[in-house]
Amino acid sequence: MARSLSSILLKGFAGFPAARFTTLASGSFYQHGMRLSTTVPNDPDTHEDFRPTNKLESSDLSLKDIVEQDVKDNPVMIYMKGVPDLPRCGFSSLAVRVLNEYNVPLSARNILEDPELKNAVKTFSNWPTFPQIFIKGEFIGGSDIILNMHQTGELREKLKDIAANQEKPE
């Protein structure tokens, strides 16, 4: 008994069936013996302030309008998997690293949070893959194009006035 107990402690609890990762159709799963949920129950006791909200749904703008406004209002806009501080894809990470070399303000939306936004961006740019980068309202492309522009010096020229505006003291 002592030997089996010590082997459990040394190997961790992963050997127990209840500790394995199991996905359920309801949005719940078990991991390390704990039931976790990816959905919020429709519980009348949950206060409205603590329920998740989708800011895009609560606005009167269509998704197309939101994408147009993002591209128009932000000198450098990137639609990516994840966020600049925590990219969820190598291509998105590469694009952020290249753009950060120029010290420009970077605006971003995480397309993983809203599949409808992802489709709206694809339709807007007529480009199927992500990340998608827009500079001064113009669709540039993805991480491969940004990297190539960086290597040839073309990206420095395109971002020169945006970077210069960042360096001016206010």
TrEMBL record:
GO terms for molecular function: 2 iron, 2 sulfur cluster binding; metal ion binding. It holds the Pfam family Glutaredoxin. One of its GO terms (cellular component) is mitochondrial matrix. The keyword Membrane does not apply. Keywords: 2Fe-2S, Iron, Iron-sulfur, Metal-binding, Redox-active center. Residues 76-140 form the Glutaredoxin domain. SUPFAM superfamilies: Thioredoxin-like. Belongs to the glutaredoxin family. CGFS subfamily. This is Glutaredoxin domain-containing protein.
